[in-house]
């Protein structure tokens, strides 16, 4: 996610991503299925989608989001120290973070394709 050329808004979007990602990891380990954490991650995801996903990187961003959603609970069989469950919780929270941003990026992409001109 680029911050160049956007000034303070790009900086805010970048830090929203960092904070959201760290929060997803910590919450996935300590507070699975916490509705307050989910709400915070959704808000941060909206901020990321609006401020930080540029036109040239939205395809990679959407592909990465799809990959996260698909592998969501693939680690569930790892029963040692509940590792599979913890990784699944972290990935679920990361998916909550990036899903709103992916929706906004997809709408931006559709808008760019449907816009007359260019």
Largest sheet: none
Count the strands?
Answer: 0
User: What is the succession of H and E elements?
Assistant: HHHH
Number of domains: 1
Sheet-strand content, in percent, reads: under 5%
Distance between the termini: 24 Å
Number of helices: 4
Radius of gyration: 16 Å
Q: Judging from the principal axes of the Cα atoms, what is the shape? A: globular
| Uncertain spans | none
Account of the 3D structure:
The protein is mostly helical and 118 residues long. Helix content is 73%, strand content 0%. The chain has helices at residues 8-30, 35-51, 58-71, 83-114. Helix 1 (8-30) runs antiparallel to helix 2, helix 1 packs antiparallel against helix 4 and helix 2 (35-51) runs parallel beside helix 4 (83-114). The longest helix has 32 residues, at 83-114. The model has no long low-confidence stretch (mean pLDDT 82).
């Amino acid at each position: 996610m680029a911050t160049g050329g956007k000034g303070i808004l790009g900086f805010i979007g970048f830090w929203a991503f960092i904070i959201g990602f760290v929060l997803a990891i910590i919450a996935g380990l300590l507070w699975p299925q916490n509705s307050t954490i989910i709400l915070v991650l959704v808000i941060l995801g909206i901020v990321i989608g609006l401020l930080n996903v540029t036109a040239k990187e939205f395809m990679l961003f959407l592909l990465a989001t799809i990959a996260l959603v698909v592998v969501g609970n693939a680690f569930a069989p790892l029963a040692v120290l509940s590792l599979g469950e913890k990784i699944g919780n972290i990935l679920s929270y990361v998916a909550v973070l990036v899903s709103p941003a992916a929706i906004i990026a997809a709408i931006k992409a559709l808008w760019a394709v449907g816009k007359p001109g260019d």
